[in-house]
């Protein structure tokens, strides 16, 4: 069975590897983005696995010419930025892998918004490719509990692993000509979440609680090198954050350093501990922060 994968990132790699190891013929259509590290990872994988791959050059025509030339029996789309015209798939069953629950977290950055908003569980979805983004019939879902150590990268990696279960199930049903499940959204409210903007990644010390700030840091790690605040008119990013037992009446945003351990006061008086900063285009351990002017008693934001 010939399986086509259309992608714009490196998250499809575990899926492609598994399908190929199961004896399926896997063909890749890759749309390069500005993420050079992901491009290099994809190229290395393709060379090692010896899978056929076409790189997108013309976003208007290339993917449809690839479909006509390869004629896959089933297509899975994973992290492709552009809206595809399903009419030009000529009846080929096509599905989209979405790293978020639907219809609650439609949009291009569902992992960011799930983490930022502090969802107790995280969801992944496979749905039939449709004329609108993230709007097709859901045929597979997976829900896992959130964990304090889950970051944006970690959750995307989990999705890339868990979705294999759904893809293999879909392929098995297609082979046996069985009807695919139609999973109802129930009473879930539909919601579209755009790509994060500057105000979405900026810490508001006066209003955000310690938990909310820790969630934002996880949602920004590593793609933004952490959640952003301002210090002396410059960007400063917190790359990690953990809740502490400290409660204080000190003004939110104030840095507390004791025995080279850095805590920062949040709204409500609770503090977070941070171990790594990104400042002046470099990674700075918190125990060296005072060398960059981030000293006990200064205020961020």
TrEMBL record:
PANTHER family assigned to the protein according to its UniProt record, in alphabetical order: METHIONYL-TRNA FORMYLTRANSFERASE, METHIONYL-TRNA FORMYLTRANSFERASE, MITOCHONDRIAL
The species this protein belongs to is Chitinophaga agri
Q: Which residues form the Formyl transferase C-terminal domain?
A: 200-270
A single GO CC term for this protein reads: cytosol
Where is the Formyl transferase N-terminal domain positioned along the sequence?
41-157
| Keyword Lipoprotein in annotation | no
What family does the entry list? Answer: Belongs to the Fmt family.
List GO molecular-function terms, semicolon-separated.
methionyl-tRNA formyltransferase activity
Q: Which UniProt keywords apply?
A: Protein biosynthesis, Transferase
Name one matching Pfam family: Formyl_trans_N
Please state what the protein is called.
Methionyl-tRNA formyltransferase
